[in-house]
Design a protein that fits this description.
Elements lengths: L1 H133 L3 H48 L11 E5 L4 H7 L4 H10 L2 E3 L6 E5 L3 H17 L4 H30 L6 H9 L4 E2 L2 E2 H19 L3 H9 L15 H11 L4 H9 L9 H15 L8 H16 L4 E7 L4 E6 L6 H18 L7 E5 L10
Parallel strand pairs: 7-8
Antiparallel strand pairs: 1-3, 2-3, 4-5, 6-7
């Protein structure tokens, strides 16, 4: 019991002793923390004093610099104000000088106006005196002077124009004649006389009956199949095949010759002979086209275009075979192109194909120029060749030298003697049309178409048309002829103006 009590007492005493020791330790630690805090506070205060001292020093330095800058700025402002005041003084002086000069200029202007009025008054007095002396007004005198000047200038201009035109024309004619003559001398072609009818010789008169057949059965079948008309008349041993399509006409002729040779003539046999004739004509057309391009040295045409060229063998214009005409044109144009340095190959192509539209114009709608242009574009030919085709009748302007050469070669080939046939009625009509166009112009006294319509001479009344007017009249007549008439080659227009004065000595 006592031992337990002692244990309790010792325990209590240990607890009290531990508490006291803990309190002592806590007090010691608290004192140390306060000391550290105090040291930190002291250091912060010292740092604060240093910062404040540095800030005050910096502020004093900035304030000093600001005051110095303010002083400098004020000095600059004072200098600027002084310069502005000096400029104002100078401007005021300048304004005063300008004002004085302006007043002087106003005075001078007034003096000049007064002098001008005096001069005008003197001039008017002189004009009045001149009108009195000349017995005409100022407007009349001006008109007389202008008329005299215009007349002199017109005469000089007409003479100069006439001389220059003559000189240029003579030089151009000389050069052109040399080139054309050289081309014609080196090229020649046959003259064909194709028409719309073809004659077939028969072995005997008895063959006419067999061609006609029973109740006209054979001849009707033949005409219907061939698209032509067969004329059986009193001409001995001959029948006539008529048709505007020349290829059909030649196919019909070849078919009839085959039937006559065979001796058997009936609708079935006619159809068989017709097929053979068409095949032979097609082969002949192809051979003709190939021969044409080979002769001209053209090797870039496709077979279909060569075939169209061969079809021209069976077409004619004014009695001139178109294929031969085109080949002749190509040779002439090529020779001229070589002389002038133009593209010979393009010129040959344009000349050979200029009338290619006539190969199809009997089977298609449109003019041969329109059809030819479409054919050339379809086969991808160059623009120069297309233009040569569509410009050879001057439906469109010539865009190249090659196109002009093709047009010139066409005129040369068509206009050479014997190339084309023209009826007497057409010849007379063309001459009358030429003379009527010339007579329709004012001031024309008389005119004559000469040299088979290749030249027209126009005589004018000299009191109505002067030299300058005669020059313009020739151009106007040529323009009317070119726009209204169709003709091969060219027509020369000569205007003659002369004044004859007759006096008698008695």
């Amino acid at each position: 019991m006592q031992s337990g009590l002692l244990f309790i007492l010792f325990l209590a005493a240990g607890i009290v002793a531990g508490y006291i020791i803990r309190r002592v330790q806590a007090s010691y630690q608290a004192g140390s923390a306060e000391a550290r805090v105090q040291r930190v506070l002291d250091e912060a205060k010292n740092k604060e004093k240093e910062i404040l001292f540095s800030a005050k020093s910096k502020a004093l330095e900035i304030t000093g610099q600001a005051k110095q800058e303010e002083v400098n700025f004020r000095n600059q402002i004072i200098k600027i104000e002084q310069r502005l005041e000096q400029k104002e003084v100078n401007l005021e002086k300048l304004r005063a000088d300008l004002e004085g000069k302006r007043e002087k200029m106003v005075q001078k202007v007034d003096e000049i106006k007064k002098k001008e009025e005096e001069v005008e008054a003197v001039r008017q007095q002189q004009v009045v005196k001149l009108e009195q002396v000349a017995a005409m007004t100022r407007e009349d005198a001006k008109k007389v002077l202008m008329d005299a000047v215009e007349k002199n200038v017109s005469q000089d201009l007409a003479e100069m124009t006439f001389k220059m035109q003559n000189k240029a024309r003579e030089e151009a004619d000389r050069k052109a004649k040399d080139i054309v003559a050289s081309a014609i001398e080196r090229c020649s072609a046959e003259v064909a006389t194709e028409t719309t009818t073809t004659y077939v010789q028969l072995p005997s008169e008895e063959m006419k009956g067999r061609i006609i057949g029973k109740e006209g059965r054979n001849i009707k079948a033949f005409e219907q199949m061939m698209g032509v008309e067969v004329i059986v008349d009193d001409t001995p041993d001959t029948v006539v095949i008529s048709g505007f399509n020349s290829i059909r006409r030649h196919v019909a002729k070849l078919t009839l010759e085959k039937l006559i040779k065979d001796g058997r003539i009936h609708p079935a046999r006619i159809e068989e002979a017709h097929e053979k004739a068409k095949k032979e004509i097609s082969e002949d057309i192809m051979k003709a086209g190939e021969a044409a391009v080979y002769e001209l040295g053209i090797n870039n045409f496709p077979p279909k275009l060569v075939f169209l060229i061969g079809r021209l063998k069976y077409r004619s214009s004014y009695g001139q075979n178109i294929l031969k005409h085109s080949i002749e044109m190509a040779h002439i144009a090529a020779l001229m192109a070589k002389e002038l340095g133009a593209d010979v190959n393009i010129t040959k192509q344009g000349a050979l194909l200029h009338d290619i539209g006539k190969a199809l114009d009997q089977d298609m709608e449109g003019t041969h120029v329109e059809i030819g242009r479409e054919i050339a574009k379809k086969f991808g030919l160059s623009e120069k060749v297309v233009n040569a085709i569509e410009a050879h009748h001057e439906d469109v302007p010539h865009n190249s030298v090659e196109a002009m050469l093709v047009d010139a070669a066409d005129n040369i080939s068509g206009a050479r003697p014997g190339a084309r046939k023209e009826s007497f009625e057409q010849y007379i009509k063309r001459l009358e049309e030429l003379e009527n166009i010339a007579k329709s112009f004012a001031g024309v006294e008389k005119c004559y178409a000469i040299q088979a319509g290749r030249e027209i001479r126009v005589f004018v009344r000299p009191e109505e048309i002067d030299d300058w007017g005669a020059t313009n009249l020739a151009k106007d007549i040529a323009g009317r002829i070119q726009n209204e008439l169709k003709y091969p080659g060219e027509i020369k227009v000569m205007v003659v103006r002369e004044r004859r004065v007759i006096e008698y000595a008695r």
